[in-house]
Specification:
2 domains; alpha/beta; 9 strands; about 35% helix; disordered N terminus; globular; 7-stranded parallel sheet; TIM Barrel; 14 helices; two-stranded antiparallel sheet
């Protein structure tokens, strides 16, 4: 049965956009009212729904001529659509012998992504013990630390050895992630022996198929050294070219929402073809912000435009096979109390409920100033999980104090024991994460 959720949201988006131009003096209030109506409108009952929860069968709202170019077939690939996930890995890659029934501790561990220090992992490193015990299910790597020194990436050979050691220690496959957008934001750089790739702004000036090919090359380079998740592409629109986090860094494919959507979808398709999980960011759109969320919480209430949802919605309509990352962004009309990254109204209400995304939500770094300066560690974890986040990212690469995987795990476990987070909620995230890992772990392009 076709999911009608897009019929609820899209009319409000474009009514708001029309009001934005027709009545500029009252545009902000009108757009905010339209957004409020979109959020408050109940979803129609849809019956049993589509079999693939990552590919809701809804009408394509784009005008003719703006459909994504078909992806070229890849080696050993049977994909027929640009964002079809890799074939499922054998079940024992996800549930090893003797561990068919995960414990609560196991499930919590899968929700944690942690940053580490150094080019190698020593036997005495506490992180290695956390991984072996299943208390850290995912790892984030950086090239340099916040103070400018080296962090985790020295050469292809070194990264390959590091990721192999990490995976060998883990009872379940790890998602090992980097930010490899291309241009100014990439961890696998030329000076470290990698090819890298062009910035999104450069790719956005070309064809979506060229973007797919560039992302596939980047993905194959990541996969060759054991990196299986990429915090890319950026789906933010270049609304404010002076935006210090997006526009000024050439991280956006452009200002046109439909073209940006095509390039983001193509980028994701290229990564999928290489066996790498893509991650669409930063929902509901960081492109209009004036501030950088690494330092403070951007207030996008007066600058955000409803069309910033279009790349995310179109990717979902195409069957987005990867994850989605919300931004640490505040919009009073979306949630007057919480930033998007900690808002159940934005994530469970808008992204999942109205827009139909059923996959993994990965937090932006929970140590960014936007949230770390205003919320305690426990509050950040509690609010993010309540909002719908599945994987909590602590990169340990900021001026904030480092936090260990065991500490995060203990906070989550305590919140469950106190009844503030239900075991069923943990199990739901575990199910989503396991489904994602089954689709990608062990698949070779």
């Amino acid at each position: 049965m076709r999911c009608p959720c897009i019929r609820v949201l899209v009319p409000h988006i474009f009514v708001a956009l029309l009001l934005w131009f027709v009545a500029p003096d009252n545009a902000q209030a009108a757009a905010q009212k339209s957004l409020q109506e979109a959020l408050d409108a109940p979803l129609p009952m849809t019956g049993s729904g589509p079999k693939n929860p990552l590919a809701p069968q809804v009408p394509d709202p784009r005008p003719p001529g703006l459909k994504a170019a078909p992806a070229a077939p890849t080696r050993n690939s049977t994909a027929t659509t640009p964002l079809q996930a890799a074939p499922a890995a054998p079940a024992d890659r996800i549930a090893p012998a003797g561990r068919t029934e995960p414990t609560l501790s196991d499930m919590i561990g899968q929700m944690i992504m942690i940053g580490m220090k150094g080019f190698e992992l020593r036997n005495t490193d506490p992180l290695l013990a956390s991984i072996r015990a299943g208390r850290a299910g995912n790892i984030l790597l950086f090239e340099r630390d916040a103070l400018g020194g080296p962090k985790n990436i020295e050469s292809p050979a070194q990264v390959r050895l590091l990721t192999a050691r990490l995976q060998k220690a883990a009872p379940r496959p790890l998602c090992i992630a980097v930010d490899q957008e291309g241009g100014k934001v990439q961890r696998l750089r030329l000076e470290r022996g990698f090819e890298g790739g062009p910035a999104a702004a450069v790719l956005g000036a070309g064809s979506p198929d060229a973007t797919r090919q560039a992302a596939r090359r980047m993905g194959l380079e990541m996969a060759a050294v054991g990196i299986n998740m990429n915090f890319a592409p950026v789906a933010d629109l270049n609304i404010n070219p002076l935006n210090p986090a997006i526009g000024a860094m050439q991280r956006s494919f452009g200002a046109n929402p439909h073209l940006a959507a095509l390039h983001a979808i193509a980028f994701g398709a290229g990564l999928v073809q290489a066996g790498v999980v893509p991650c669409l960011k930063h929902f509901p759109g960081h492109g209009s912000a004036r501030e950088d969320s690494h330092d403070s919480l951007p207030d996008i209430t007066a600058t955000w435009q409803p069309t910033e949802l279009i790349p995310f919605q179109q990717a979902i309509l195409e069957g987005w096979a990867g994850a989605v990352m919300p931004g640490h962004l505040y919009h009073r009309g979306l949630d007057a109390l919480r930033p998007a990254s900690l808002s159940a109204r934005v994530l469970n209400g808008l992204l999942r409920g109205k827009m139909g995304f059923a996959g993994v939500i990965v937090s932006d770094d929970m140590q960014m100033g936007a949230v770390a300066k205003a919320y305690s560690l426990e509050d950040r974890i509690l609010l993010a999980v309540e909002a719908g986040v599945d994987i909590l990212v602590f990169g340990n690469n900021s001026r904030m104090p480092d936090v260990g995987a065991d500490e995060i795990h203990a906070v989550l476990l305590r919140l469950v024991q106190q009844g503030r987070i239900s075991p069923a909620r943990i199990a739901l995230s575990f199910e989503r994460i396991s489904r994602l890992k089954q689709r990608f772990a062990g698949w070779k392009p």
